[in-house]
Write a structure and sequence with these properties.
Thiol Ester Dehydrase, Chain A, 142 residues, five-stranded antiparallel β-sheet, single chain, two-stranded antiparallel ribbon, alpha+beta, 33% strand
């Protein structure tokens, strides 16, 4: 992967995020990945609700998570996400769950697509307004 811009979301593992042993529950990873993705899109210039109001949606097409080290209750975690876009309809989001010492606990890869909200069909040619925001998401850091 080339040097893409990284978007960060800070989270703290609370009791509701864990199982009875204090280990972060696997469903919490999915919730945080979704929150990170929506937060990043907002920071790039468009709120997700605006996208919905314009008749579009960006559902998950494929997701993979590799759990490396358990995340425990009380830990502070940063979800680092990078967006990889091209001319096609698919957008790839690569995310890492890291602790305060920059140790990676989990790695995730998500493919999302742009669809027309009314027809649920994939939009192959993205509208210009959206292309500009996606460029903000994926441009290389300087």
């Amino acid at each position: 992967m080339n040097s893409c811009k990284s978007w960060k979301l800070k989270k703290k593992v609370l009791p509701q995020h864990t199982d009875h042993a204090g280990v972060m529950w696997h469903g919490t990873y999915l919730n945080w990945l979704e929150e990170s993705r929506i937060d990043s899109i907002g920071k790039a210039g468009i709120q997700y609700i605006e996208l919905l109001n314009k008749g579009f949606e960006m559902p998950v097409y494929k997701i993979e998570i590799k759990y490396l080290i358990p995340i425990m209750i009380g830990e502070e975690i940063i979800v680092n996400s990078s967006f990889i876009t091209n001319k096609g309809p698919r957008i790839k989001v690569i995310s890492n769950f890291t602790n305060q010492r920059n140790r990676i606990h989990a790695e995730a890869s998500i493919d999302i697509v742009l669809i027309n909200k009314e027809t649920f069909k994939i939009v192959r040619k993205r509208p210009n307004f959206l292309d500009n925001y996606l460029k903000n998401l994926s441009k290389a850091s300087k």
